[in-house]
Write a structure and sequence with these properties.
Two copies of one chain form a homodimer.
Chain A: H1 4-12, E1 30-33, E2 38-48, H2 59-77, E3 80-91, H3 96-112, E4 117-125, E5 130-140, E6 155-159, H4 164-172, H5 181-192, H6 198-203, E7 208-213, H7 218-229, E8 232-236, H8 244-252, H9 257-262, E9 269-273, E10 284-291, E11 297-300
Parallel strand pairs in A: 3-4, 8-11
Antiparallel strand pairs in A: 2-5, 3-5, 6-9, 6-10, 7-9, 8-10
Chain lengths: ~325, ~325
């Protein structure tokens, strides 16, 4: 394997795309300009092989998951991407072509989201492959979307469709039966390569009273808003927007509703607002209302009866990675 | 083990010390103010158990190594600390008291360097313990110390004493004989709990022409300056400042000079300047001069003869962790 400096020079330095802040990755740190009237939004998400992605996942899809989850956090704050730093831990003997393909995968996100690499660290590990990405964004000062502003009477909205991430993980593991190949591929693709809602987040500045991205699961993530906003929510299960593929999966097995509502990895935005937000590049759908009280999130069916969610969302820390790591 | 949210709430949220940017760790990201006329300095360093720290290292010393290496990168750019994000990967079954002690160790750095926790991620791993810290600092716009400005005729300086890190690793592993307990403890302590030179770095703004921190090893790190500044250096081995303990180690075994010059982990500043820098909180010592050419760093003894450095510094990527991870 080439050494650390060769790897950085060959595969990672080009991902700066010449951005001045990166100093060509030849210095101790990146230098990012500051402008009064704006704030930097900073988020760090880590992923571990066999825990957050399948152990035989492709390098391009690993790069996608890493970028999407972090960009989704920027989106949830209404921030525009500035760039990122990356800590990569490669197991001994990782093939150089794997690293090259991973860097190539990152490059697509760098270009699509104007999200250059600014710095980082490359280490070897005797354990599983692991990446930690720190995304930096910028937002108008005092305007960042937060989780704290939801008020009784607000409407609860989501972007795009919900449940594709959780169902997509099942599809990727071969656990979804009774679906067409096209639907299975669609769902697995939504799990493997999510779309962070940067433009939708930017458009919600000054409009959403609270916002979060759906990463742990819709019910759990809305619960985070309820907790810090000191409100409750009533969600109409039938109003939750589904893709055709997710609808087909639910038709085949209605018990999958729980996976839709609590499965996570959708990377859509869930937010509250007083007024209907303007249409943008992705559909926004009203799914419920903010109510007073401390009862958290209740989900009701079309008859108004409660829908039980046994599994309140994915908790990476409590969840133990399976002994036989998942296979795609 | 407590779940992810409990761990964050109990041990990590207090490390924000109420800093507004951290939003109490209840949101998707931190929000850091920007001020025109300044730049944010951003650096990410990762450490893996058995590779970058001894597998039975104490949680307090792991926290020290993590903070010191990242703060040292800020120091090398002349930046003042703003705060940090942390990705922590805990092996399954990590005891809660270990996490508590680690957080307690971090807290001392938070307070000493006004360096609050702003955000991050907590995951489990089937592999070794790993941490990735992203440090954010701030520096006057256009004034960050870089590696690019060294010019022939400049003097080469270092802060503090050199070689304690490399010798300290040997001491920690029980590989240094013929030393007093006090000297051994001093060196091991310098390895385990280095002192980042934040104030010295700030004082070099506008004075140093190039600067780097000594993490890979003095010769290799000066080589980085030579490479990007397109200069060479002539270093006088006898001028390199040594602690009493390092002097005693060299007296006992002169071959350890190579460990002093190339051993790494000192976290002192090495820099070039036209004029003698003013005295500060740590001694600054002239050790050589910048010369023209592309010959890199040559080290000479008191007779002017070259000192051979077989091992040009520690390369974490090429270096393979030992099968039996090091024991303290």
């Amino acid at each position: 394997m080439a050494d650390e400096f060769d790897i950085i020079h060959r595969y990672f330095a080009p991902l700066t795309r010449g951005n001045e802040a990166a100093l060509d990755l030849t210095d101790d740190a990146a230098v990012v300009a500051q402008t009064t009237g704006f704030e930097h939004v900073v988020t760090t998400d880590a992923i571990v092989s066999g825990v957050h992605f399948l152990i035989d996942e492709s390098p391009e899809n690993i790069a996608a998951r890493l970028c999407a989850s972090n960009l989704s956090d920027l989106a949830a704050m209404g921030a525009a991407p500035v760039g990122f730093t990356l800590a990569a831990a490669w197991p001994k003997g990782t093939e150089e072509r794997f690293i090259a393909a991973f860097a190539d995968g990152l490059g697509r996100w760098v270009d699509e989201y104007d999200f250059p690499l600014l710095g980082g660290d490359t280490v070897t590990t005797p354990g599983p492959m692991m990446f930690s990405l720190t995304a930096i964004g910028t937002v108008e000062a005092g305007k960042a979307l937060k989780r704290t502003g939801a008020q009784p009477g607000d409407t609860v909205y989501v972007s795009g469709t919900i449940g594709d991430g959780g169902l997509g993980l099942m599809a990727a593991k071969g656990e979804l039966s009774g679906l067409s190949d096209a639907h299975r591929d669609f769902l697995a693709g939504r799990f493997r390569c999510p779309t962070p809602r940067i433009a939708a987040g930017r458009a919600l500045i000054g409009r959403a009273t609270a916002c979060i991205d759906v990463s742990d699961g819709l019910v759990q993530d809305l619960g985070h808003i309820c907790e810090v906003s000191a409100v409750s929510m009533r969600i109409d299960a039938a109003a939750v927007p589904l893709s055709d593929a997710a609808r087909a999966a639910l038709d085949a097995d209605p018990a999958l509703l729980e996976t839709v509502l609590a499965g996570g990895d959708d990377y859509e935005l869930a937010f509250t607002a007083h007024q209907t937000p303007p249409p943008g590049d992705v559909p926004l759908t009203a799914i419920g209302e903010v109510i007073s009280g401390t009862g958290g999130v209740s989900v009701v069916d079309t008859s108004g009866n409660p829908v039980k969610i046994a599994h309140g969302g994915y908790n990476h820390f409590a969840a133990q990675p399976p002994k036989d790591a998942p296979k795609a």
